[in-house]
Design a protein that fits this description.
Rossmann fold, 3 domains, six-stranded parallel β-sheet, 40% helix
């Protein structure tokens, strides 16, 4: 028996794959190729090719990540399919960066992507990065190299130990995972993945583990009709059984209605606006849906919680009825369950049963936010008296607090620079930088990504979004380095857009690869580095809780402009010491085709004009005893 040399085998297999890929491309897509019989419904293919075909059928054409010995087989399939124009593959320098870019791509444009890794550390890097799409409900595929199923001995980079499936157990702890231990199971794996990444209400990451020895396994006469394509349907309005009438009566009997708007209300803007008028309610909006209600709407009390606004926290503190719509009740958003001390009734609309029953004294509505609100609006219209008061005492009091908040911010905008001991001169405050940058971004229709820490908190207190899709803030995982990595999505997307990443110096140095990868892959955006040489959010928290700052700063002066200019194709600018100078730098950056960086020294210190403060509570540090006692006293 003659053994075919590996190179000859690879050439034969590559030719077979190329013929299939060309048939699909010439037909205009996989469905068209099957319908026209250009591509037979049964083929001899490896598991990796069947997987790529399955993802292609689901509309996944973008692949981003880091190849290794645990993913060379799928790399070969992608090489051939990219040559035929069916997919695009982007090799980058960090699996975390790949994860953030894929999440940002889906978040901003709706385009699907798959993150690929090798076995071991690379897969774990991707797992860490997946906390962002997991907590922000964004559908992303993860294709992860894994140990072989033959158990011939420990595989290089597998988790040490004799137990089977350790990576599967680990990834399953975070979300839905599947091991392609048996090649014909690929259709089941693709169905479970489709149900996860395309879930209409609770999308998230899907972790597909690919044992290295199974990836090249040949499947004879594999039926392409087994590859799933139909996504899960949307859930309709919550069931009635008299609940809508009871809720409407409770709303019209209440004196002070607050509506907490979470990510689950992203597509319910029109119904929400009508509901606020009918129920005489005011809205407190989560940063993840900034713009679902226009910033200047009179019933928008903006953000609330431990880093909320004066008006948002006033509305939560004084309300006697809470309507929670599509919210997860993250500790900072509801002041660790102490934000509603006067609430005696909760109407909770959520697709998730656990979230819908989170609070006591709740009337849970398990269903899609938009249709459920529309049904509730019908009941309110039936009961609401014509000619009723158009501006209640409750609305007037909330509007007064909104005016206080605007005056509070305006006072800080009027003092854009303060003397800073580290810099030895007057430098811009974070508030002034974020205000100028986000106003500029809105005027130029630029997508803005916020990083974690002070940048994020000040950002969602400042932005004035008039619609969804202006700003993107990872308030779920608050992942340091997200915003800069997100700029890579501008190069991955099939529809070009410009991005602005607002990031602190600490977060940027955790994920600076965008300077290289963004240039390599045609990204178009600006990294705005706010440099106070510290983790200002944690320094401030330490100072407020304990009166001392510890191990959250350094004295290493880094020349970020020189760093950026060291990468060919990257433009770098000094942001100056005034809002006008910053805007001029942003204009120059916008004119550059590719990646740019603007460095701005920013103030950190005790001057109250340098920050926006906090108006809520939080169950951390030495606040724990008081916060927990209040939570149990409220009993909500």
């Amino acid at each position: 028996m003659t053994t075919v040399p590996p190179t000859e085998k690879a050439a034969i297999l590559a030719q077979e794959r190329m013929q299939r890929a060309q048939a699909i491309a010439e037909a205009g897509g996989l469905e068209e190729a099957l319908c026209s019989e250009t591509l037979p419904r049964r083929i001899d293919a490896t598991l990796s090719e069947a997987l790529v075909l399955g993802l292609l059928r689901q509309g996944v054409r973008t692949f981003v990540g880091v190849f290794g010995h645990g993913s060379t087989e799928i790399a070969e399939v992608l090489r051939i399919y990219e040559e035929a124009g069916l997919v695009r593959t982007f090799g980058v320098r960090s699996e975390i960066e790949a994860s953030h870019a894929a999440a940002a791509l889906r978040w901003v444009t709706g385009e699907k992507a798959a993150v690929f890794t090798s076995i071991g550390p690379g897969a774990l890097q991707a797992l860490a990065g997946s906390l962002t799409p997991l907590t922000d409900r964004i559908g992303v595929w993860y294709l992860l190299g894994d140990e072989t199923t033959e158990d011939e001995g420990p595989n290089f980079q597998q988790i040490p130990g004799a137990e089977q499936g350790r990576f599967l157990r680990l990834f399953s702890a975070l979300g839905r995972a599947y091991s392609l231990h048996t090649p014909p199971a690929v259709s089941t794996a693709l169905r479970r993945g489709l149900n996860t990444v395309d879930h209409p209400h609770q999308a998230g990451p899907f972790y597909l583990l690919m044992p290295m020895n199974e990836q090249p396994s040949r499947m004879s006469m594999f039926n392409l009709d087994e590859l799933p394509v139909v996504p899960p349907p949307r859930t309709g309005a919550a069931p009635d059984e008299g609940a809508y009438a009871r809720a409407a009566e409770a709303l019209l009997s209440a004196e002070r209605v607050v509506v907490r708007v979470g990510g689950g209300a992203r597509e319910a803007g029109p119904e929400l606006l009508e509901f606020l008028e009918l129920a005489d309610g005011v809205a407190v909006v989560s940063p993840i849906v900034s713009g679902v209600i226009p910033y200047h709407h009179r019933r928008n009390m903006l953000v609330g919680g431990s880093k909320g606004s004066i008006c948002g926290n006033f509305a939560m503190e004084q309300a006697d009825l809470l309507v929670a719509i599509g919210t997860r009740f993250v500790c900072q958003s509801d002041s660790s369950r102490t934000a509603y001390p006067c609430v005696r009734q909760v109407i909770n609309i959520n697709i998730d049963v656990e979230a819908a029953t989170h609070y006591g004294r709740a009337m849970p509505f398990v269903g899609d936010a938009g249709p459920t609100l529309a049904r509730l609006n019908e009941e309110l219209r039936k009961l609401k008296c014509a000619g009723s008061e158009t501006e209640s005492r409750w609305l007037r009091s909330c509007v007064e607090q909104r005016q206080r908040w605007e005056a509070f911010k305006a006072e800080r905008y009027a003092t854009p620079a303060l003397y800073d001991e580290v810099w030895g001169e007057e430098v811009l405050t974070q508030i002034a930088v974020i205000k100028a940058a986000t106003d500029w971004a809105r005027a130029h229709d630029v997508a803005t990504f916020f990083d974690s820490g002070d940048v994020q908190a000040n950002g969602f207190q400042i932005v004035e979004d008039d619609r969804l899709g202006r700003t993107f803030s990872d308030t779920g995982a608050s992942y340091m380095g997200f915003s800069a990595s997100a700029l890579l999505a501008t190069g991955l997307s099939e529809r070009r857009f410009y991005g602005l990443a607002i990031v602190g110096d600490g977060s940027f140095t955790m994920n600076p690869q965008i300077l290289i990868d963004g240039t390599a892959h045609g990204a178009n955006g600006c990294v705005l580095v706010l440099d106070n040489r510290r983790m200002a959010a944690i320094s401030a928290l330490q100072a407020e809780q304990y009166g001392a700052v510890y191990a959250t700063s350094d004295d290493v002066a880094t020349d970020y402009v020189a760093w950026a200019r060291s990468v060919p194709g990257v433009a770098a600018f000094d942001g100056g010491r005034s809002p006008e100078a910053l805007v001029a730098a942003l204009d120059r950056a916008r004119q550059h085709t590719g990646i740019s960086l603007i460095h701005v020294p920013v103030y950190y210190g005790p001057n109250p004009l340098g920050g926006l403060g906090a108006f809520g509570r939080w169950n951390v540090g030495n606040w724990v005893e008081e916060t927990q006692a209040l939570r149990h006293e409220i009993g909500l």
